[in-house]
Design goal:
Layout lengths: L1 E18 L2 E18 L10 H13 L8 E6 L9 H16 L6 H9 L12 E4 L7 E5 L4 E7 L6 H5 L4 H7 L1 H17 L2 H14 L9 H9 L5 E4 L5 E7 L6 H11 L4 E7 L6 E3 L2
Antiparallel strand pairs: 1-2, 1-10, 2-3, 2-4, 4-5, 6-8, 6-9, 7-8
Helix pairs in contact: 1-2, 2-3, 6-7, 8-9
């Protein structure tokens, strides 16, 4: 008898930075997923990284269960090292799958505690859109449910190791330098989520994306921002510690996405189009076959 749990990935973050020295991000969950299955047959693991196995072990320890001969299998839509929260999705789904296997169910806060003991984590496993301290977990604030938004996802290339990124010696100073813009971005996104106004969310995300250029530069970002407005996009967001960026379109402008993608690729030939996704509410799903 097995257990399957599915977690969404992300297209980076809507906002990320620090306020008064406290790290935070605003989640940007999308309809791409990692599915973790746990079976008690002792067969070899499949497509499983060390962090995911650590999540299973720590969950069982937390719940007072010894290590068992479990087979862990991962099936994921999410590329690694791009800022789409592949590790956070794997880890959070593994935590809940392990708990369910032994007859328990973890709260999002419990999952956050376990995940943060492994590495900095995205709050994609919380329902809705969250403001969360992804490094220490001191901030965990529900901001609302997302309006209907489509995101055209582009990749500027390369990979970023999240753990190495968060250990950068210059990161605290660079985050402090952009705090004014981050506060503005946070307020716009918070108001947008509270009122369902996608244009406010797009404005805030764009401010945060531009402010992050001094920390992790995205080539052609400014050109993309200027260009996509002409197609009805409400803004652009980025993976603040990754390589992807997203162009945000309200549902009534979905038809403009394809010509917009063509225009971006023409203007920025060194950037690749990944795919179009939907902004969704976060949260884990128990998969029932």
């Amino acid at each position: 008898m097995g257990v399957k749990v599915r977690a969404p990935g992300t297209c980076g973050e809507l906002v990320q930075g620090t306020i008064d020295g406290e790290n935070f991000l605003i989640t940007c969950p999308v309809d791409l997923y990692s599915e973790v299955e746990i079976i008690g047959d002792g067969r070899p693991h499949r497509n499983v990284g060390s962090k995911t196995l650590t999540a299973v072990r720590k969950t069982l320890q937390y719940l007072g269960h010894g290590e068992a001969q479990l087979s862990v299998r991962v099936c994921s839509d999410l590329p690694v090292g791009k800022g789409m929260a592949s590790s956070s999705a794997d880890i959070s789904a593994a935590c809940q799958a392990a708990a369910l296997y032994v007859g328990r169910c973890l709260t999002p806060d419990e999952i956050a505690d376990i995940a943060l003991s492994i590495e900095p984590t995205d709050g994609l496993f919380y329902p809705g859109i969250m403001m969360i301290d992804h490094v220490h977990g001191r901030i965990r604030r529900f901001l609302g449910m997302p309006p209907a938004l489509f995101i055209a996802v582009f990749d500027v290339g390369g990979q970023v190791d999240t753990q190495c990124f968060n250990r950068r010696s210059d990161l605290a100073g660079l985050n402090a330098a952009k705090e004014k813009q981050v506060r503005q971005a946070l307020e716009l996104v918070r108001r947008g989520l509270a009122t369902g106004d996608s244009s406010l969310i797009g404005q805030g995300a764009t401010i945060s994306a531009i402010a992050n250029q001094a920390i992790l530069y995205k080539p052609c970002l400014e050109t993309i921002i200027e260009l996509t407005v002409r197609f009805g996009a409400v803004g652009v967001n980025v993976a603040h510690s990754g390589t992807v960026l997203g162009v945000l379109f309200p549902a009534d402008r979905k038809a403009a996405i394809a010509p917009c993608v063509d225009a971006v690729l023409s203007a920025c030939p060194n950037i690749a189009f990944f795919r179009t996704v939907r902004l969704i509410a976060g949260g884990l799903t128990i998969v029932r076959d």
